[in-house]
Amino acid sequence: MFADSISHYQNNTSKELNPKAIFFDMDGVLFDSMPYHATAWVNAMTDIGIPFTEHEAYMNEGRTGHSTIDGAFNREWNRNATEDEKQQIYKIKSKYFEAYPPSPVMPFSAELLSKIKAQGLRIFLVTGSGQPSLLDRLQVFFPDVFAPENMVTAFDVKHGKPHPEPYLMALEKAGLEAHEAVVVENAPLGVESATAAGIYTIAVNTGPLDDKVLTNSGAALVFDSMKDLFDNWETFINQFKS
Known about the structure:
six-stranded parallel β-sheet, globular, DNA polymerase, domain 1
């Protein structure tokens, strides 16, 4: 399983995969927060008269909030939202999101992070989120894992996922080439962003989308859960031990 996908990556890039850092998305990977995000987006868009479904929220997962709003405005009204509209709508969305109970930690995410850290690999966060409630909880549930200088969030980029900028910025912060990193994502746009940056990308399908959506977006492998990835991590990383 791993050997074939690694060989495919190396044939396509003419680079030998040599992981030195693992880049993690946040929503749907570290926190089981996407159901709340999806419902909050549906409610916020409904409030301003734009039809929006939970499926659409999952398909847009990874975009910055402003990009999601522009997409909905262009679909319905053939224009981008003004900056004031973006601020207003994102404030409404955030209000809905913050009213929900705290998002639970994704099962086996902490265990996987601990295993990776013990293996001496560097860990980075690359998220399109700007929700302070989630970003603040990283240090609570994953202490001493995500250093501020090893994070790329919605506040750092001009172009969110699926643009490669977030992952290119992570590579720049890490001082690494694309073949020296591995990405763990759960969203099709996040997978597109990572693969556009030239990085080997593992998808974990923690949402309602079909696996083919993630594969078609460029995922090298798709796992059913973080536990599934955790259980197979040693097999993966052992591919690179001499």
